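REVIEWER CHECKLIST
Item 1: Sequence provided? yes
Item 2: Single chain? yes
Item 3: Sequence as submitted:
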Amino acid sequence: MRNFLTRLLHRARRRPHLAIWSVGLLVIAAVVIGAYSPVSPLGRLDDLVFDTYQKLRPRPATESAVAVVDVDDESIRRLGQWPWPRTVIARIIDRLTEEGVATIGLDVVFSEPDRTSPALAVAQLEGQGFQVSHPGPTEDLDHDRVLAASFARSPVVAGLVLSEGVDTPPPPPKAGFAFAGDNPTQYLPSFPGAVRNLSILDDAAPGIGVFSFPPADDGVVRRIPLLSRFGDNLYPALSVESLRLAQGASTIIVRSTGASGEFDTGQAGMTAIKVGDLEIPTGPEGRIWVYYTDKHTSPVIPAYKLLDTPDPEVRNQIEGRIALIGTSAVGLRDLVSTPLRAGYPGVLVHAEIIDQVINQKFLTRPDWAQGFEIFLAIGLGLVVLAFLPWLPTWANVAVAGSALALSIAGGWFAFADRSLLLSPILPAQTSLLAFGVASGIRLLLSESESRYIRTAFTHYLSPHMVEQLVHNPDALVLGGENRELTILFCDIRSFTSISETMEPTELTVFLNNFLTPMTNVLMEREATIDKYIGDAIMAFWNAPLDVPDHRQKACEGVLAMLAALDELNRTLEKPVQIGIGLNSGICCVGNLGSRQRFDYSAIGDSVNVGSRIEGLTKQYGLSNLIAESTAKGVEGLAMLEVDKVMVVGRDEATSIYTLLGGRERAAQKEFQELARLHGSFLASYRAGRFADAAAELARLEQSSPHELRKVYAEYRRRVEAYLVSPPPADWDGSWRAEHK
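Item 4: Structure as written out by the authors:
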């Protein structure tokens, strides 16, 4: 398992964008699929967002077509405890009819006989043998009959509660129905029973409407079914039935999917109902989103006022309006929560529905809303993922923030301009989760890459350069790339003789004492240690990180190595000497080797030339030789040209130089005079003026520093030979090396 994870992580490091996209796509798929599962909290969050929309922009308040007759606490105090005698309700209904009401909707149900009816007392007395007489009609003794008579002569919509907890069948509906498209009885859920009025009341009422609110998880009334079903019968909501009676309509038209002009989604559902001249868009189950006002304008008339002497003000509040009789009394518990407020009288919710239908102000959540939200969620998630592997963190945060802002702004403007309910939750959630998880994967890969870089280069580079690579891994190209490098080879003179005088453990200590300071010097000057070959060191500059002045740093590194060697020699009984060669050119650098084992290294002709130049230091007796390709990029150091040489294996000559010191020595008059004489000698030598060259060489031999004596001895041998036997006419002053 560990090996599998290691391979997986290695592949992810090689193609981090593919790893990020793969994980991100899985997150998007998981979020979208899980969003509409039964246990998803998405629906609850959507409701809260839609509630917020209504709080920010409620339905504009207009003059209401509804008057509310309120059974409030003051009315109960004046008229007695609830329920009141049915004769009191009858008097209120008759008064409303007299005042010219359009419809009377009852947000109450009278399911049991009136216990205050004299008819009940008469029956009890007669049962005990008493004889009771009454001067008026016997119907007046039965309050339920009195109320039924009031129902019959008034435009009353009797209340009905369809419920899961009862099995009593409801009365037959009073409204007729016509269907355009699928029959709603085929797809609306059916209730098992109802809490209904006494039959005498339901039979007498011109209309019957359902006033109960379906239960919500959080108790907030947001969506109300306009049609409910019991078996094969449909029952309109109290608001719909009140509008039907107010318009004198006999039939409610129901439009469903499959009707002419309606898009058939393949799943039956309601799209709208028409009541008289008013059309109401609905959801698939016949529900309407209640669009609340922040300031209700319906006249609210305490019930007791309708039993007082007729008042012109009361008549103005009632005439021509739909009157709804309900209660706001705290003890009667007909208070509900809405998106705008808690403790709202339920009767006012019905009034809100009637007003928004009359004003044709609806909130709609079209059947394509869910599909659009899924499409937007996937689209925004893909946009976030597309940029994430390539952009810096702050830019990715900006992209994710833009996706979030687009989701929120799109949902708000759809509501504010079109009254559409489009939720930003799924698109925002998908974008943020895709960003968060994919960023986590990116961070994990980045940390893994950092550990990999530290592990791979800690022995090659200085800690400073390793940290640069960690913070800028794009500077590292693995697998081989062509770069201009400055290559250094360093070797101990006569190492074979030295090793023969030491035990293996002593030799190991000796090499460690030599290689450690040399390595420190090179790393401090941004060199990459390629390898150790016994006593030899191979290093280079300008890879894996760019070192713009790599030639200068390499030469300064040579001087620092020679200074470190002087320090080391003070601790040794027998001082050691080294030879250093430098060359610059295009090389192939990267992780080179086999699949089983590889190192970060450089190969190419420039590497070979650098090795050959290091070998020439023995012939010239110098501690260092530098190729012209390196020397031409160096300034301010004490450097002399030594010779023009064709190294072993090459027919093209290259000039080689040696460093005699740093900037201080280069500024000394003695060195400047040496450089002048040395340059004059080389000019005479290469021009074939060997007699002049011999004279100039004699002056150099007398004044030259110790480290150049073998160089001048080599030239003395050549000049004397050329005086006897001149070189060919096409000779250009170059020398062919015979040994590596």
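Item 5: Key structural point noted by reviewer: The longest helix spans residues 425-457.
Item 6: Recommendation: ____
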